[in-house]
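Progress note, sequence design subtask.
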């Protein structure tokens, strides 16, 4: 059974940091593939700043075309909005019963994971692969040393989509981000 890491994001835009993390997960963990799940609308983000769903999906297709084990996914485009991770996971399990799905997230998301809809069910049924992020706060004690949470030693990426959007807005030249 293939083990698939699901890397959710608005990817607005996708950048070299996303690709480095996805590639690291495929090459240095027990994941066979990473699916970059393009999220139409993150309930924690303002929708007005998002590029069109299909433009972001196309950027992910172009960015991942040379990575044989990293694939774009538009699964959330087909689900009712706003969508929650638990619903996507349930849908994917129904569609692909022969795959073992796991979540990939940054440590910053793990710090607020207790706010996610049905986070207990996610932790009960899925493994989490958590990569380091520079952020405020600490990981809650009940998530430290949890058997379903794998803290991955991966490069720390300080580049962000917000930085890229702001740089473009200010007419800065950006190559290979």
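Output:
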């Amino acid at each position: 059974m293939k083990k698939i890491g699901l890397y959710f994001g608005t990817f607005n835009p996708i950048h070299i940091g996303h690709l480095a993390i996805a590639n690291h997960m495929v090459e240095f963990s027990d994941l066979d593939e990473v699916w970059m799940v393009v999220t139409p609308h993150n309930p924690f983000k303002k929708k007005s700043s998002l590029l069109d769903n299909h433009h972001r999906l196309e950027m992910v297709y172009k960015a991942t075309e040379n990575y044989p084990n990293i694939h774009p996914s538009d699964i959330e485009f087909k689900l009712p909005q706003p969508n929650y991770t638990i619903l996507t996971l349930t849908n994917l399990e129904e569609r692909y019963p022969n795959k073992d799905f796991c979540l990939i997230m940054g440590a910053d998301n793990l710090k607020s994971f207790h706010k996610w809809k049905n986070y207990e069910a996610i932790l009960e049924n899925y493994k989490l692969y958590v990569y380091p992020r520079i952020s405020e706060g600490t990981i809650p004690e009940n998530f430290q040393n949890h058997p379903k949470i794998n803290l991955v030693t991966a490069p720390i990426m300080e580049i962000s989509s917000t930085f890229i959007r702001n740089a473009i807005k200010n007419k800065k030249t950006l190559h290979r981000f």
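The chain has six helices and six strands. Work on this subtask will continue into the next period as scheduled.
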